[in-house]
Amino acid sequence: MNDLQQAAATASRRPFFILGSGRSGTSLLSRMLHAHPRLAVPFESHLYNRFYTRLPRSADLAKPRTRERLVGEILRTEYMRQWKPALSGEATLSAVSRPNFHGIVEALLGSWTVAQGKARWGEKTPHHTLLWRTVLEGFPDLQAIHLVRDGRDVALSFRAAPFGPKHVYHVARHWVRYLTAAEEARKVLGAAAFVQVRYEDLLAEPERELRRICEFLGEPFDAGMLAFYRDDTAYPTDRRNLDRLRQPVLSDNTQKWRTGLTPRELRIFEAVAGVELERYGYARGTSGARISAWEDISCRYFENPPRRAIAMLNNRQGHRFALESLRLNWALRVGL
Q: Is pLDDT of 18 > 70?
């Protein structure tokens, strides 16, 4: 094992993955943890949902040329180009100690962590919550931090975001799907490898929650984590999210749904996800919320598509990602 492989492998010991639905505060938590002097958490990688799921079975990553082509395609993606400092293909390939996809993930994150002068990496891509079993296959010693936020506030945040579901019905289903995946991970991983944090608690008592997370990770608490917003390194999220990440913790950024959702939207959300709200300690805002079969069909097939279409038309980054996905489909099937 060469020096780069050794350094990357050392940084990959007990990696941690931040799980949770998008718009649940995962960016905030990742910035807080990245402010720790030993921990490195880059911008989202989307490695498993964009690459692993597309890899043809015939791709033999034991072959150096195949690994080189795959790493080249990964580093060409918009998500990975936004990592600072930029990753080197040569350095990444030199850091690969396992000739499979997980080994490439380890090399990417491990070499980036070493370049940061840090000792241990974490990863934050909300989509990976749904692929936790695949991630666990590659990193059986991982630790998972699940961040959960009141789904009604998640719905409001998705409404303002340039991506994601735009109808409260679909956000509710999305939120439940991610919670279900995280619950399955918790049952398999157990308390030693899985910790759950509520976004609202992180805002109300950030030091207490960060100390709890550090204890879970086996790392000393560092007060610099509370000053995460002073890091002026570019973080390529949407403008609304970035504005919040450049400020101290906004302790009052909760229960926006009380004024932001209409009575009908609240009823629909709680009809779909009311059980999950109560399970995670969020009081319902209505009683006996119901949704008829016709309203279900209307929300699913008639009300959401126009809203999603308008959002997609206005989302220029989404257009680039769509074109990039088409290119990846071709490149991974033919180029490997």
A: yes
Residue 160 lies in a domain: yes
> Are 67 and 61 a contacting pair, CB within 8 Å?
yes
263 and 71 Cβ atoms separated by less than 8 Å = no
Q: How far is CA 328 from CA 81, 116, 193, 315, in A?
A: 15, 29, 33, 20
Which CATH number fits the domain that encloses residue 291?
A: 3.40.50.300
Domain that holds residue 193: 14-44+119-334
pLDDT at 335 over 80: no
Taking the C-alpha atoms of residue 202 and residue 98, their distance in angstroms, rounded to an integer, is: 37
Tell me, yes or no, whether 58 lies in a domain. no
Question: Whose structure tokens read 């390194």?
Answer: 233
Helix (H, G, I), strand (E, B) or coil at 144: strand
In angstroms, the CA 192 to CA 261 distance is 38
**Sheet hosting strand 194-198, strand order edge to edge:** 39-40, 120-124, 16-19, 143-148, 194-198
CB atoms near residue 306 (< 10 Å): 11
Task: Assess if residue 329 is contained within a domain.
Answer: yes
User: Is 304 a domain residue?
Assistant: yes
User: pTM higher than 0.90, yes or no?
Assistant: yes
Which residues, listed in sequence order, are joined to residue 196 by a DSSP beta bridge?
146
Task: Give me the residue label for tokens 């990964």.
Answer: 74
